[in-house]
């Protein structure tokens, strides 16, 4: 389906550094080494509610990956999905008396406009699950040929016993997995399953639910297999970064990695698993089930979206943190300082700013460190007439913060 429009990204002199990222599966910071295109898959939204700050924080983190790679000279092949059919969407549609497709379309539209306002670079392919049901069913068929599936009352399950690399992404103990699985859409207690951690690949048709034909009976796909199918179709296995919020480490990315491995025989499915931290409010993780959401669309009714972006950049992408309105005020003040500094007829030499921001961002996306480099430049005086324009381009290109100085 339609992606969203791309902001302009100024080209900077010279070339950026190789990007180092914390890989959850390796449990350390490692250099990314794209060969040819840099390939990235980021898990998208389930469109039953508006984009909240937790989402924005995640998509911003991978926007920074995209920008740092491009600055280092890579062509970036970025794919994202939208889970436009799933339990929470259907439940919300039924509870509010709205058609599920109309609900998904409305929320995806709002998400696109939020992403545009925040100057998040769009994916090359933005794929709705309902657009590729046939490919997902093919993948389920391939997993069945490999002997990795079984049927339970018409539903198709992946058998965890068929996944030799299961556990390699999260590193979690079985006890921890069993604790998280039911909290994140799993059904460990279902009668008739061979193992509590076996997961649903295909849900057989139920009354009043949408369904699609498949060789193993009409129904709809499970959550994990949709991303595996979309990533394999667009990027192939062994792509550079699989991304999402840290709540996707298990089960979503763990199970998707095993599906990719068993289907292709190739490992790793993604060369790095990269996860953004959770944004909280009043001591709790921001989530739909808790109802403590701060929506991007609401914030940008009164705040400059670039201030919202700066407020997010003030936290390292991997940290968990809490949103307070005071952070937006601080970001607005920083934006005003930068705007004034960029409008000066001259400033201190910007060579060190370019090197410093590149160095901070290549080091596991240290955006707070990069902001400090620009803050320091803005606080000093100098006589280089080219410097304000260059620093403005650095902020725009590498941090996505476009500061109009008109
Ligand atoms: Zn996903």
Please describe the structure with a list of short key phrases separated by commas or semicolons.
406 residues; alpha/beta; Rossmann fold; Four Helix Bundle (Hemerythrin (Met), subunit A); 2 domains; 4-stranded antiparallel beta sheet; 13 helices; 14 strands; 14% strand; binds zinc ion
Could you characterize what this model shows?
The chain is of the alpha/beta class. Helices cover 42% and strands 14% of the residues. It is built from 13 helices and 14 strands. The chain has helices at residues 53-71, 87-96, 100-117, 133-145, 174-183, 223-234, 249-264, 296-302, 305-313, 325-342, 351-362, 367-379, 387-399, and strands at residues 20-23, 28-31, 38-42, 76-82, 125-128, 149-152, 155-158, 199-204, 219-221, 241-245, 273-276, 279-281, 284-285, 321-322. Helix 6 (223-234) crosses helix 7, helix 9 crosses helix 10 (325-342) and helix 11 runs antiparallel to helix 12 (367-379). The radius of gyration is 22 Å and the shape is globular. The model has no long low-confidence stretch (mean pLDDT 96). Residues 43, 227, 252 line the site of zinc ion (ZN).
């Amino acid at each position: 389906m339609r992606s969203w429009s791309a902001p302009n990204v100024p080209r900077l002199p010279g070339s950026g550094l190789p990007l180092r990222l914390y890989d959850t599966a390796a449990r350390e910071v490692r250099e990314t080494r794209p060969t040819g295109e840099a390939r990235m898959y980021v898990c998208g939204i389930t469109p039953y509610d508006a984009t909240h700050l937790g989402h924005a924080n995640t998509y911003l983190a991978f926007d920074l990956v995209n920008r740092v790679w491009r600055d280092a000279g890579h062509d970036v092949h970025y794919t994202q999905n939208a889970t436009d059919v799933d339990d929470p969407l259907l439940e919300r549609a039924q509870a509010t008396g709205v058609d599920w497709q109309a609900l998904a379309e409305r929320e995806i539209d709002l998400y696109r406009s939020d992403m545009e306002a925040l100057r998040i670079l769009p994916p090359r392919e933005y794929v709705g699950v309902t657009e590729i049901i046939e490919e997902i069913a093919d993948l389920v068929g391939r997993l069945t040929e490999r002997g990795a599936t079984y049927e339970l009352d018409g539903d198709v399950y992946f058998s965890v016993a068929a996944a030799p690399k299961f556990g390699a992404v999260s590193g979690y103990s079985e006890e921890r997995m069993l604790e998280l699985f039911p909290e994140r859409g799993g059904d460990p207690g279902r009668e008739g399953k061979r193992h509590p951690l076996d997961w649903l690949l295909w849900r057989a048709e139920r009354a009043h639910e949408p369904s699609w034909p498949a060789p193993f009976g009409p129904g709809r796909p499970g959550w994990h297999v949709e991303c595996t199918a979309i990533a394999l179709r667009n990027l192939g296995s062994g792509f550079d970064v699989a991304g999402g919020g840290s709540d996707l480490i298990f089960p979503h990315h763990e199970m998707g990695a095993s599906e990719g491995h068993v289907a292709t025989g190739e490992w790793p499915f993604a060369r790095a698993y990269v996860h953004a931290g959770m944004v909280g409010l009043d001591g709790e993780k921001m989530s739909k089930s808790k109802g403590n959401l701060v929506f991007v669309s609401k914030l940008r009714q009164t705040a400059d979206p670039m201030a919202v972006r700066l407020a997010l950049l003030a936290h390292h992408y991997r940290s968990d943190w809490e949103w307070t309105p005071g952070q937006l005020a601080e970001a607005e003040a920083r934006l005003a300082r930068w705007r004034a500094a960029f409008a000066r007829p001259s400033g201190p030499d910007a060579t060190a700013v370019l090197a410093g921001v590149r160095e901070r961002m290549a080091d596991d996306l240290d955006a707070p460190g990069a902001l400090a480099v620009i803050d320091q430049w803005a606080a000093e005086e100098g006589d280089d007439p080219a410097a304000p324009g260059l620093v403005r381009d650095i902020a725009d290109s590498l941090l996505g913060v476009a500061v109009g100085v008109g």
